[in-house]
Amino acid sequence: MLLGQEAVLELLCCPVSGVSLEPLDTNVLVAYSTDGTHEYDVVDSYPVLIRFENSILDKSDIQRLSSTVHRQSYGGVFSVAKRLACPPSHVTKGNVELLLDTLLSQQNSARVLIVGGGTVGCGMEPFYTDPRIELVSFDIYASPSVQFLADAHNIPLVSESFDAVIIQAVLEHVLRPEEVVAEAYRVLKIDGLVYAETPFLQHVHEGPYDFKRYTESGHRYLFRCFSLIKSGASAGAGTQLLWALDGFFCGLFRSKIIGKFIKLCLCWLQYFDRLIPEAYNVDAASGVYFLGRKTREAIKDLSIVEYYKGAQR
To answer: Which residues belong to any copy of the Methyltransferase type domain (predicted)?
Structure first.
């Protein structure tokens, strides 16, 4: 469940200096450090903790608390259609269950951070409803599912304060994913867990805020400072084909509506993911996932070649 704002404030720190924040008044937080004083606005109870001089984010947009990307809301028949076209992922469901079981097997509660939690992610509902989870969430826009605004390249939270970090459908939207993963590593406790889902073969989404893609092996190497618990394709070749057809017909007819209509008509293609062997899904995945544990020793470069899990042996 979402942690209360007072408890969250105790975990916050300056994204520039890393020192603790103090309230200057009801609308400003301040950090006093050897390199100077840093002030951050609190807008409608949301602390805005972003180093704008080191970010692609525009201060005026962020301080309006709105998303820089239009996010469509669905209701009625459109909600049903969206659920048919993009049903809950059985892979994510299983991974979330494993993550929760691992977190709570030896302790009664766990503190979890969701990076990019402005919208509740696919399969992430248990973290918001389980009373044993102390949940902290942030994004670059305000919503009921976040407690503050921040840039994931500079997470304004004290080091070694979380049992788990979740990064779902975020790393494709940051300029320097290695820095984001390093920040996740920093805020995790010793032996803390990370779970990430990232696209591989998907067309551009969220327009100018889409930058990266990863093969399954490349994704593993990105998390090389974590020991492997589980990894693979979060969505396989069938889902990838559905994405491709959506993009193809959208471009052919210059119409997003037609692309989505075709995607809805052919949504059954994604169920072939379950019939295709994992090794082939890995090579043609729509998206990949990684679940791992913080470790002191990074994997060696040579081992990533041996790690390959696809069908092209």
So the answer is: 148-195
